[in-house]
Amino acid sequence: FCRVDPYGFERPEDFDYASYEAFFSRYLVVLTRRAIKWSKLLKGNNRIQKSLKVKRYIRKGIPNEHRALIWMIVSGAQTNMEQNPGYYHRLLEGEKNDKLVEAIKTDMNRTFPDNVKFRKTADPCLQHTLYNVLVAYGHHNKAVGYCQGMNFIAGYLILITKNEEESFWLLDALIGRILP
């Protein structure tokens, strides 16, 4: 196994690779079975209907390859993104609130310090993507702006979706609709 996991987090020096491999070799059977069920459910398209079956599948776990899509659909973020084409980029092109930008920049280096993808030396460095998502969201939801800790939520969304705009819309769904 690699010293860095698939999301970019470094494993600690005392990581027990033998136990992890023993666990993962058994768990891989479960993951494979779930992935097959999800693939059949999606049938090659990017739409699903909310149902008890989908709810049960979600509770058992969404395979990595489908996670971003399912989160986007179930949260309503996909619909919002489709109904507001270009909105995210307009937020980034607009005038910036200096206090908001300063607060975000303060937390940038604190975001996942043990993740190689958020280091300034990474290529590409996800700090710029994180900055864009947080600045856009702060201007989108002025009542919330930026709060300490949002960098970790947005950072995680970026790692899962691998897409800046989708991460913005998921952050909006979480903070704007799901959490309140």
From TrEMBL:
GO molecular function (one): small GTPase binding
Domain (Rab-GAP TBC) ranges: 61-180
Gene3D superfamilies: putative rabgap domain of human tbc1 domain family member 14 like domains (1.10.8.270), Ypt/Rab-GAP domain of gyp1p, domain 1 (1.10.10.750)
Keywords from the named record: GTPase activation
Coiled coil: none
InterPro entries: Rab-GAP-TBC_dom, Rab-GAP_TBC_sf, Rab_GAP_TBC_domain
Functional description taken from the UniProt entry: May act as a GTPase-activating protein for Rab family protein(s).
Protein name: Growth hormone-regulated TBC protein 1
Organism: Phaethon lepturus (White-tailed tropicbird)
